[in-house]
C-alpha cells in the first residue's frame, strides 16, 4: 500500500512511501495518477479541489485551497493556507466510544509510603535557584557511589530561575520545582538553595507544603563553610532512606503515563500517535491514567477532544484552557496558527490543523476526566488534559511535574532529549528507527507496512510495562535528562 486515505470523507491521501510522477494509486474504486513526485508523508489530491474549498484529512478540514488543485497533485503549503483564526465558538456535543477489554497486567515497581507507585527509585537534587546548579552537579559527580542496591540513579535538575523573577513567573518556578520534589520516582530529594534568592527556602517550603523529612532535605549553601561536605552528608541520609524500597509486583492501574510528540512528520497522525492512542485506551481500560498536553497543537482539533469530555464541567475547563492559550498568543502579538515548524513541513505537515488533528490521536478514544493547570498534579484516573505549550522540553517537564511516571514521545524526525521521567522515543517511520538506533526505543513505522494499530498498541503496552519494571530507555542510558520551566514575564 503506497498511500492511505485516513477517513472516508477525505479528499486527500497520504503517501506511505515516496510516489514518483506517473505512479497510480486507488482509493474507493477511484484511480489517481500522481502528476508530480510526492515525498513520503505528503498529501496527494484524490479529486479536483476548487479554490477556497477545504482540504479534508482525518475527516476534518485541515486547510483551504488557495487555487484550483487537480486530482493527482501534491497538496502542501504552496497551494493551501490555514483556516484558523484567534476566535472560536464551542458547543458540548458529548460522544462516548467503547474501550478495549484487556486482561489484568502488572509491573515491578516501588510502593511509596503514601500509597503511590514509582517506576524508578532515584535520588534527586533540585536547585531552588539557578546559582547553585554547579554545586548540584559537583554533588552528583562526587556521590555516584550511592547508586547501589535498589537506588537507580542520582541526578540534578539545572535551570536558570528562582531569582530575578517577579509575580507569576516566580510563583510558577516554585510550583514546578515543588511538583518535582513530590514526584514518586524520587526516593529521596535534596533541595539546594543559595541563601539570597527571591525564591527563599522558607517561601519554597510554603509552596511545597507538608513533606516527609526523611525523604526531603534542605541545604542553604551560604550557611556552610563546605557545602559539598554538608550536601554529601545529607545525600547519604537520603540514600539510606531510599534504599529500603524494593521492586514488587504492582497493578498497571497505578501507572501514570504522559503523552507528547515532537519533530512530527506526515506519518505521525497515521502510525505513532494513534499507536499511543491505542495504548492509552488499553491502560485506561486497566484502570490507569494518561496525560495529554501541548495546547497550541490542539488548535484546529479541539472539538475532537471536547466531544469526549466526561461532563459539561470538564468541557468548560477544556474550553478555558484552549481560550487562555489563544489569549496568551494574542497578548504577545502572535497569531495562533504560527506552527508547524520547518521540519514538520518538510515531513509533510502543512498547517496547524493538519498537525493538531494528528497530535490529538495520542488521546485515543477514552473520556476526558479532568483538565489540569500547568504543573498541577493529576488526581483522577483516566485521560487528563494538561495546560502547557508545545515546546518539547517545557511540556515534557510539565508532564513530569503533573506526576507522569514516564513519557511517550512520538517523533518523525528524531530527537535525543529526555525529561526527568523516563522518556520513550517512538518513531513514526521505520527509516528513522533504523537510522537512529541510539535514539529510538520503539518503532511504530511498522503500521505503515501492514501492522495493525491494535497490534502496535499491544506491543507498546508490553514495552511500557517493561520500562516501568526497570528497563532503561535510551535517553536514560545516554544521560539525556533535563528540565525547562515555562515563563512569561520580565527578568530583573
Structure description:
With 492 residues, the protein is an alpha/beta fold. The chain folds into three domains: 3-81, Archaeosine Trna-guanine Transglycosylase, Chain: A, domain 4, CATH 2.30.130; 122-244, Rossmann fold; 250-478. The chain is 28% helix and 20% strand. The protein contains 13 helices and 23 strands. Strands 19-20-18-17-21-22-23 form a seven-stranded parallel beta sheet, with helices on both faces. Strands 1-2-5-8 form a four-stranded antiparallel beta sheet, with no helix packed on it. It has a four-stranded parallel beta sheet with strand order 13-12-14-15, with helices on both faces. α1 (133-142) crosses α4 and α5 (272-285) crosses α12 (453-468). The protein starts with a strand and ends in a 14-residue tail after the last helix.
Task: Calculate Rg over CA atoms.
Answer: 23 Å
- The helix/strand class is alpha/beta
**Number of beta-strand segments:** 23
Total count of helical runs of at least 4 residues: 13
Indicate the mean pLDDT: 95
Shape: globular
What is the share of helical residues?
25-40%
Q: Approximately how much beta-strand content do the residues carry?
A: 15-25%
**Unreliable runs, pLDDT <50, ≥5 residues?**
none
Major sheet size, sense and barrel closure: 7 strands, parallel
Question: Span between N and C termini?
Answer: 58 Å
Strands in their spatial order, largest beta sheet: 19-20-18-17-21-22-23
How many distinct domains? Answer: 3
Amino acid at each position: 500500500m503506497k498511500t492511505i486515505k485516513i477517513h472516508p470523507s477525505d479528499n486527500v491521501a497520504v503517501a506511505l512511501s515516496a510516489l514518483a510522477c506517473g505512479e497510480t494509486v486507488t482509493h474507493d474504486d477511484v484511480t489517481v495518477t500522481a502528476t508530480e513526485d510526492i515525498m513520503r508523508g505528503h498529501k496527494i489530491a484524490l479529486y479536483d479541489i476548487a479554490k477556497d474549498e477545504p482540504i479534508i484529512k482525518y475527516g476534518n478540514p485541515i486547510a483551504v485551497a488557495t487555487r484550483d488543485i487537480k486530482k493527482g497533485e501534491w497538496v502542501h503549503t504552496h497551494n493551501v493556507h490555514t483556516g484558523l483564526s484567534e476566535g472560536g465558538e464551542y458547543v458540548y456535543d458529548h460522544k462516548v466510544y467503547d474501550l478495549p477489554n484487556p486482561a489484568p497486567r502488572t509491573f515491578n515497581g516501588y510502593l511509596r509510603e503514601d500509597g503511590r507507585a514509582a517506576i524508578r527509585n532515584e535520588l534527586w537534587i533540585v536547585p531552588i535557584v539557578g546559582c547553585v546548579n554547579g554545586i548540584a552537579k559537583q554533588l552528583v559527580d562526587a556521590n555516584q557511589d550511592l547508586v547501589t542496591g535498589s537506588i537507580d540513579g542520582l541526578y540534578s535538575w539545572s535551570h536558570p530561575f528562582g531569582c530575578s523573577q517577579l509575580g507569576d513567573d516566580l510563583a510558577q518556578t516554585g510550583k514546578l520545582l515543588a511538583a518535582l520534589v513530590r514526584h514518586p520516582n524520587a526516593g529521596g530529594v535534596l533541595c539546594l538553595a543559595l541563601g539570597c534568592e527571591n525564591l527563599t527556602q522558607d517561601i519554597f517550603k510554603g509552596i511545597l507544603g507538608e513533606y516527609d523529612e526523611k525523604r526531603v532535605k534542605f541545604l542553604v549553601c551560604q550557611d556552610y563553610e563546605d557545602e559539598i561536605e554538608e550536601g554529601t552528608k545529607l545525600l547519604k541520609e537520603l540514600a539510606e532512606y531510599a534504599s529500603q524500597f524494593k521492586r514488587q509486583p504492582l497493578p498497571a492501574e497505578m501507572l501514570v503515563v504522559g503523552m507528547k510528540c515532537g519533530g512530527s512528520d506526515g506519518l505521525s497522525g497515521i502510525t505513532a500517535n494513534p499507536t499511543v492512542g491505542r495504548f492509552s485506551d488499553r491502560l485506561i481500560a486497566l484502570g490507569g491514567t494518561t496525560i495529554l498536553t501541548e495546547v497550541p497543537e490542539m488548535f484546529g482539533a479541539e472539538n475532537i477532544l471536547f466531544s469526549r469530555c466526561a461532563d459539561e464541567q470538564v468541557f468548560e475547563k477544556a474550553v478555558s484552557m484552549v481560550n487562555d492559550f489563544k489569549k496568551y498568543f494574542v497578548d504577545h502579538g502572535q497569531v495562533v496558527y504560527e506552527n508547524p515548524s520547518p521540519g514538520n513541513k518538510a515531513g509533510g505537515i502543512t498547517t496547524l490543523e493538519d498537525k493538531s488533528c494528528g497530535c490529538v490521536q495520542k488521546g485515543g478514544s477514552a473520556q476526558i476526566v479532568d483538565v489540569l493547570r500547568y504543573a498541577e498534579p493529576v488526581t483522577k484516573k483516566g485521560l487528563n488534559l494538561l495546560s502547557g505549550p508545545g515546546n518539547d522540553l517545557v511540556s515534557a517537564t510539565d508532564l513530569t511535574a503533573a506526576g507522569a511516571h514516564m513519557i511517550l514521545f512520538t517523533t518523525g524526525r528524531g530527537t535525543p532529549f529526555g525529561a526527568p521521567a523516563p522518556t520513550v522515543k517512538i518513531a513514526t517511520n521505520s527509516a528513522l528507527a533504523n537510522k537512529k538506533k541510539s535514539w529510538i526505543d520503539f518503532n511504530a513505522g511498522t503500521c505503515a507496512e501492514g501492522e495493525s494499530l491494535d497490534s502496535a498498541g499491544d506491543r507498546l503496552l508490553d514495552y511500557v510495562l517493561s520500562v516501568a519494571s526497570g528497563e532503561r530507555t535510551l535517553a536514560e542510558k545516554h544521560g539525556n535528562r533535563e528540565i525547562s520551566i515555562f515563563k512569561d514575564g520580565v527578568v530583573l
